[in-house]
């Protein structure tokens, strides 16, 4: 009788571990993923070595929003993290370090601290959507324009072109490492 109890107890443990492993695989594959940042293209918002939680399910039911921090497949070997600037149907331009969406100025509060670090210099060089796309006046459906916050050192839509929404892995929701810099991202982060 004792051996039956031990066998049942062992079987219960094996079932519990099996269920936990299956849940972990499902969560990682379909819901959330850990992402380690390499490079300085998103500084000062996100630094080299930061670890993020990326929400993979959100864009299955909604579209990216302006200023979201997203991770996407830049090519077959690399994933990038950038900020969504332009959405389908919009015209984007930068002049004198000012973002213009559909020819109207739009503030970028998350860049204020960084702009102070490079006084008397433009953080974002002048460009228009037409220059990036070879003449398109509006971002096509199913695509977005992305930029890194560290505009002087970022490979983004100015270099790689528009990003297909189908290539977006998900939205960076939480920086969990380093622990003392843990933060939930809402898209309009301001440097404290």
Automatic annotation (TrEMBL):
GO MF term (any one): serine-type endopeptidase activity
Positions of the Peptidase S26 domain: 11-177
Localization: Cell membrane; Membrane
InterPro entries: LexA/Signal_pep-like_sf, Pept_S26A_signal_pept_1, Pept_S26A_signal_pept_1_CS, Pept_S26A_signal_pept_1_Lys-AS, Peptidase_S26
EC number annotated for this UniProt entry: 3.4.21.89
One GO term describing the cellular component: plasma membrane
Transmembrane segments: 13-32
Catalytic center residues: 41, 82
Keywords annotated in UniProt: Cell membrane, Hydrolase, Membrane, Protease, Transmembrane, Transmembrane helix
Catalysed reactions, semicolon-separated: Cleavage of hydrophobic, N-terminal signal or leader sequences from secreted and periplasmic proteins
Any one biological process term the GO annotation gives: signal peptide processing
Membrane topology: Single-pass type II membrane protein
Protein family per UniProt: Belongs to the peptidase S26 family.
Protein name: Signal peptidase I
Organism per entry: Fictibacillus aquaticus
Name of the encoding gene: lepB
């Amino acid at each position: 009788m004792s051996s039956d109890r031990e066998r049942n107890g062992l079987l219960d443990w094996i079932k519990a571990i099996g269920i936990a492993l299956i849940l972990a695989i499902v969560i990682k594959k379909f819901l959330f993923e850990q992402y380690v940042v390499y490079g300085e293209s998103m500084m000062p918002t996100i630094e080299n070595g930061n670890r993020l939680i990326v929400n993979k399910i959100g864009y299955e039911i909604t579209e990216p929003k302006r200023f979201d921090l997203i991770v996407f497949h830049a090519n077959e070997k690399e994933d990038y993290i950038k900020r969504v600037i332009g959405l389908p149907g919009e015209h984007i331009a930068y002049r004198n370090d000012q973002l213009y969406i559909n020819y109207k100025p739009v503030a970028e509060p998350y860049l204020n601290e960084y702009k102070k670090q490079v006084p008397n210099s433009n953080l974002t060089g002048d460009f228009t959507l037409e220059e990036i796309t070879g003449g398109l006046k509006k971002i096509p459906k199913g695509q977005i324009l992305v930029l890194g916050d560290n505009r002087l050192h970022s490979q983004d839509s100015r270099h790689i072109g528009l990003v297909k929404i189908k290539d977006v892995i998900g939205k960076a929701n939480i920086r969990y490492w380093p622990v003392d810099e843990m933060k939930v991202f809402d898209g309009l982060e301001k440097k404290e």
